[in-house]
Structure formats: C-alpha cells, structure tokens
C-alpha cells in the first residue's frame, strides 16, 4: 500500500495540536462535502481522504503509530512484536540488542515467509483479523428539524443510509451507526460511523437542554394595569395573562412549551419568557397631559 501523507491532506504541520487537527478537518470537510459539491466524483474522493486522515490524526494512539510506522501503521502491534522477538533472539545469541526491525524489514519479513505476491495479505496468512476504522462525520441540521422525530437519507462512503433522528438531539451529541465505517481487514468486521450533530439555531429562542428561553416586549400600560397578550412559542402562539404592576425583567414559565425530551415521546421542557418593558414614544399632547396628572397624583399621594 503506497504511503499517504495525512498531514498534507489536512494541510497541517506534523506538530499540529489536537485542536488544530479538529479545526482543519471541519474546515475541509465543509469545503469538500458531497452535499456542497453534488455529482463531483473528485470531491467525493477528496472527502473520503479527509475523513481517513482525520480518523488517524485525531486519535492519539493511531497518530503515534502512523508517525512511527508510516504506511504500515495499521500493523504497528505486529511490527513492534516482531522487533521485540528479534531483539530477544539477538540477545540470546550474543548479538547486539540494539538491532531493530524497520518498517521495510517488517514487509520483507512477511514476504520471505509467504512470497511477495502474498505480501498484501500477510496478516491474513497468520489468521489475524482487524476491524475497520471508525469514521467520523458531522451532520448539520436546523433546529426545526430536530423538533420532531424524522428520517433522513445520508450518503456514507458512496452508499445511501436511512437514519432515524430522534427529536431533541443535542448540539455536539454523537451517535454510532454500526458497520458503516472503514472496511475490515482480512475478513474482520467493518468499523462504525460516528456522527456528530451540529445544530444550527437561527430562531429567537435560546435552547438550554430541554428548555427554551425568549425575550418578549411588554408595553407599559399592560405592565401596569395587567391584561393578556399573545406570545410566540416554538410551535405556535398562545395567550398569556399579565399580572398588574409587572416589573421589567419578570420571568414567566410556560410548562410543556419547551423542547422535546430526547427519546421520551410527547414529553417537553418549558419555555421561560422574560418581559422587557417598552416605554411609549411619540406621545400626543393629551397623553403627556395625562402622564403629568399621574405624576402629580404620585407626588401628592
């Protein structure tokens, strides 16, 4: 298998931190995602390379193996085991214990045992099966999409997979789709696909877990005298009673008008409304006169 420079694919330095790897992957994944470049096979190939590079470099153990063993990083355990056995043989025979197998020695070692034509399946000759790599990807959704449970078809490794997305998933939440990752080696099981949800919220509501928060303007007259106003919720409008002399910043909790509780059908959090008092403007002369009278009453009261 030819050497693939994963650092070059992600356009980062070999000394890049874990955070830098993550940022580079997200930037390139968005740029080359098949949904952004429909029908462009070259972009699909590039996207697969980016995922593969991220699988290796975002995992500290895999990255160490890759840095030490290059294209043979998947067989690092076998290489190191062979190196150890070689050192022990040299030590027992009086040879120098500092001699080690290199990566090329490792390849040659199996070729000498099974022949060059079988070198590509050298692990299979030893009866060792390896699970495929787990693949990681982001699934971008609008907050309205996760208000109800629904199905979505996504493309994974040139295959279409129907995924049921439960209502109430969290931003950053991960789910595992079995056997949709990298192909297993020598008959081993396929890896998994790890999907991270990225929820985009362009609404007036702020979401915190199962609760929603919203600011609502309240006119001075209703705040003072009380009454009823129409308030927008995530899935419609409701009437809310206002207590007389409601102060600025007062909060009201609307039970069951928040966000769906994950995997609990027909259960919802609450909507917490904060009232912002709006003082009247562009007063008429009569309104000014009435306010002046009120002012005098307050002073003389």
Number of H/I helices: 9
Name the overall outline: elongated
Question: Could you give the count of β-strands?
Answer: 11
Major β-sheet strand ordering: 6-7-11-10
List keywords for this structure.
4-stranded mixed sheet, 3-stranded mixed sheet, 301 residues, 11 strands, alpha+beta
Task: Give a verbal description of the structure.
The protein is an alpha+beta fold. The protein is built from nine helices and eleven strands. The chain has helices at residues 6-10, 18-32, 41-57, 60-69, 76-92, 103-114, 122-125, 220-225, 285-300; strands at 135-142, 150-156, 159-165, 174-177, 193-200, 206-208, 211-219, 227-233, 236-242, 251-254, 271-278. Strand 2 (150-156) and strand 3 form a beta hairpin. The longest helix has 17 residues, at 41-57.
Topology:
Elements (H helix, E strand, L loop, with lengths): L5 H5 L7 H15 L8 H17 L2 H10 L6 H17 L10 H12 L7 H4 L9 E8 L7 E7 L2 E7 L8 E4 L15 E8 L5 E3 L2 E9 H6 L1 E7 L2 E7 L8 E4 L16 E8 L6 H16 L1
Parallel strand pairs: 1-5, 7-11
Antiparallel strand pairs: 2-3, 4-5, 6-7, 8-9, 10-11
Helix pairs in contact: 2-3
């Amino acid at each position: 298998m030819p050497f693939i420079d994963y650092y070059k694919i992600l356009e980062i330095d070999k000394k890049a931190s874990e955070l830098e790897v993550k940022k580079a992957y997200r930037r390139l994944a968005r740029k080359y995602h098949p949904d952004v470049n429909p029908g462009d096979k070259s972009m699909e190939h590039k996207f697969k390379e980016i995922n593969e590079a991220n699988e290796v470099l975002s995992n500290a153990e895999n990255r160490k193996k890759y840095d030490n063993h290059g294209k043979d990083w998947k067989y690092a355990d076998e290489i190191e085991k062979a190196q150890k056995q070689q050192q022990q043989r040299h030590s027992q025979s009086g040879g120098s214990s500092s001699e080690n197998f290199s990566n090329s020695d490792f390849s040659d070692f199996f070729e000498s045992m099974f022949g060059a034509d079988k070198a590509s399946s050298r692990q299979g000759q030893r009866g060792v099966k390896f699970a495929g790599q787990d693949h990681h990807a982001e699934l971008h959704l609008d907050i309205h999409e996760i208000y109800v449970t629904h199905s979505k078809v996504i493309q994974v490794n040139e295959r279409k997979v129907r995924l049921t997305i439960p209502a109430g998933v969290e931003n950053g939440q991960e789910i595992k789709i079995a056997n949709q990752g990298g192909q297993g080696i020598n008959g081993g099981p396929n890896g998994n696909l790890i999907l991270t949800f990225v929820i985009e919220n362009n609404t007036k509501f702020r979401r915190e877990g199962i609760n929603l928060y919203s600011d609502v303007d309240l006119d001075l007259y209703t705040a003072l005298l009380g009454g009823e106003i129409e308030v927008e919720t995530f899935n419609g409008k409701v009437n809310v009673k206002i207590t007389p002399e409601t102060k600025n910043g007062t909060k009201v909790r609307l039970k069951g008008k928040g966000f769906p509780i994950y995997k609990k059908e027909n259960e919802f959090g609450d909507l917490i409304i904060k009232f912002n008092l709006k003082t009247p403007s562009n007063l008429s002369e009569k309104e000014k006169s009435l306010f002046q009278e009120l002012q005098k009453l307050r002073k003389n009261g």
